[in-house]
Design a protein that fits this description.
alpha/beta, Helicase, Ruva Protein, domain 3, Dna Topoisomerase Vi A Subunit, Chain: A, domain 2, 2 domains, two-stranded antiparallel ribbon
Amino acid sequence: MGSRTLEWEMIGPEVEELIRMLARLPGLGPRSARRVALHLLTHRHDVMAPLAETLSAAADAVRACSICGNLDTTDPCGICSDAARSNGQLAVVEHIGDLWALDRTGAFRGRYHVLGGTLSALDGVGPDDLRIPALIARARAPEVAEVILALNATVDGQTTAHYIADRLSGAGVTVTKLAHGVPVGGEIDYLDDGTLTAALRSRRPAGAAS
């Protein structure tokens, strides 16, 4: 306890706040945050200052796409405004990171829809708390032939997939889900490109047994 107190007495409040903010980033705990903070502070001119400028510029320029929910500097985003993409396929993902992961594979050249999470009775998250109503409206467009439920293989993810599939029954679209390569409990954003490509190519009807 004494050594920890001494450690924090050795740094000023600004450095302490920097470490605390860095520790809030995904994958960074207090120890990793201290290492990153030290690196930034010892490379203030060639790393920290340019990073601060880039973060400020991104905060000002980046916005959510009003169509799919992706983040970009334009609205609609680059994916939604790409005329070379197919309007007949719509991939549904939980988060923006999942969209980026899937699109990075190059195996899918259709459109996306970011839900912003999953249904969760325990957390009080219902359909209206997500972008599900907007999805249903988009899926009913005449040009959409297939909705791909590219949701994580978790309990909440699969619950959300079943709900969407039920809502789209009778809508005249084929509803499929990712197949081989996505392990139970796996999160799309952490899977490698080869696994994601196989899952996209092996998709099956959403009502089919796992």
